[in-house]
Amino acid sequence: MRDDSFQRRNQPRDSRNRISDGEPKPLPLGNKCNYLCPYFRCNKRALMIQTRYVKGNPQKVGFCRWVGDTCITGECQYAYCEKRALLPGNKCAFAINRDNGSEDVEKDLKHDEFYEDEKVKEIISKKFGKRDLDLI
To answer: pTM for the whole thing?
Structure first.
């Protein structure tokens, strides 16, 4: 039993972010994180899901016991995603990947590499002067 628990804890990072067939699906609202998602967690353990009735219809609402108000989801500093999919700006990585596809991610990576190359050239030119930048 001890070996089995060790293997579960020490999985490769890429396999932790994947969703297999037996796992629940993430529930983002558009491209935003949702407190009803099975992977959304509160570090303070203050999230409580309540059923409130609005005009006779039941709705599930996240309630923060720590603040005493409704949950603000990814805007809270104590919110995190179990699958590490909560991005800055309360965005869900699963929703963004599903909408954009992998082609846009590759374009963004190429753009970042180009930007970093330009930044390196700028730093070198400041350090050594404006000579032989074409060789770099």
So the answer is: 0.56
